[in-house]
Amino acid sequence: MNNPEQSVGGVRGWLRGLEVFSGPLPEFLPEEAPDDPVRLFLVWLSDAVADGLPDPHAMTLSTVDEAGDPDARVLILKDVDASGWRFAGHAFSPKGHQLSVHPRAALTFYWPGHGRQVRLRGPVTPGSARDNAEDFLARSATARAEALLGRQSQYLADPAERDQALEKSLGLIGRDPSLVDSAWTLYTLAPVVAEFWQASADRVHTRLRYERTPAGWARFPLWS
After folding, report:
1. Which pTM value belongs to this model?
2. What is the pLDDT of residue 22?
3. CA 20 to CA 152: how far, in whole Å?
4. Looking at residue 5, what is its pLDDT?
5. Where are the domains of the chain?
6. In CATH, which of 3.40.50.10190, 2.30.110.10, 3.40.50.10800, 3.40.50.150 is domain 25-137+182-222?
7. What pLDDT band is residue 222 in, cutting at 50, 70 and 90?
8. For the residues 195-207, what does the mean pLDDT come to?
């Protein structure tokens, strides 16, 4: 592989030469979209799954910290229904701390093979103790053991220390498979805005914005 820095035009020229939206893209007619963004989202998600797009349920969660600086990471969607989009995490993790201070967030889904993007913004609420426990126990033993350590994103001085702690945590789970981390949280983002974006090879993209109103959802086509 050529070094991008040594290519003609450097990194900028190399990036501009990369193909995007080169394959056949699905059609999106906003006037035929359902009144509810949940229904349209599930159609697009189902299309991505049916066509074998990788990690179709992966999404970017964006939050802000105490200073108002943005932060983002990729998570897996846990569920979606009329009440909102759900994801999970440890309350003592950076995102958990950030959501406790600023309980609002944004979610972004992107399916490159279809040239489709969905953006959501709204308040975030934690789940009940029962819902949190059910989500925690549905995780693999290793994932549960790691969560029980409660040290996500802390500095790691020695991988051997992590491995020993994880082995000990796995032992706890082996002795008590029903063990639940009380800090594990299932969050729900209830969007006040949902935007659906369909790419076009000619760059005249199609965008549809849903806005929550007291009477329900209102739809607005947007300039590309």
Report:
1. 0.92
2. 83
3. 35
4. 67
5. 25-137+182-222
6. 2.30.110.10
7. very high
8. 95
Per-residue confidence (pLDDT) for residue 39, from 0 to 100 = 98
The answer to whether residue 6 scores a pLDDT higher than 70 is no
Give the chain as a 3 state SS string: CCCHHHCCCHHHHHHHCCCCCCCCCCCCCHHHCCCCHHHHHHHHHHHHHHCCCCCCCEEEEEEECCCCCEEEEEEECCEEECCEEEEEEECCCHHHHHHHHCCEEEEEEEEHHHCEEEEEEEEEEECCHHHHHHHHHCCCHHHHHHHHHCCCCCCCCCHHHHHHHHHHHHHHHHHCCCCCCCCEEEEEECCCEEEEEECCCCCCCEEEEEEEECCEEEEEEECC
